[in-house]
Amino acid sequence: MQELTLTKTRLFEGVWEGVITGAGDRRPDVSVTHLQETIAGVEVVEKPEEQAWVLRVPIPADRIADGVQTFLISDTETGAALGSFSIVSGDALAYDIRAEVTLLREELDMLKRAFRRHCLETM
């Protein structure tokens, strides 16, 4: 199976959009999380003329706050991180390194869950 690639296209009217390639005819199973909670309303729409899939992530209003809010996009089937995006507001704009630290924490948590699942399956 070919590896999925996610490319951001835009953030418009509260909806983050990107294009997923490498899935072929198979609809990618994607999840988006914020602080380890799954975001509802995520859409994956086929774009057959380009052999790609459009990912649309509505950003819930209750997730927008001062500071850095990082959303992690993952392939549900493999658990691989496809990408991420952050929203920075308020005083945190001066500290954009926080976005990177938040992303690292999210990815570390994802790796810990995958490692624990692997350990349980191999016992």
What's the gist of this structure?
The protein is α+β, with helices and mostly antiparallel strands and 123 residues long. The protein has one helix at residues 97-122, and strands at residues 5-12, 15-21, 30-34, 37-38, 43-47, 52-58, 67-75, 81-89.
Q: What layout of secondary structure does this protein have?
A:
Elements: E1 5-12, E2 15-21, E3 30-34, E4 37-38, E5 43-47, E6 52-58, E7 67-75, E8 81-89, H1 97-122
Antiparallel strand pairs: 1-2, 2-6, 3-4, 3-7, 5-6, 7-8
Continuous helix count: 1
Examine the coordinates and then state which fold CATH places here, giving the name of the CATH topology: Immunoglobulin-like
Helical coverage, percent range: 10-25%
Strand order of the largest sheet: 1-2-6-5
Overall form: flat
Order of helices and strands: EEEEEEEEH
Q: C-alpha Rg, in Å?
A: 15 Å
Mean pLDDT: 89
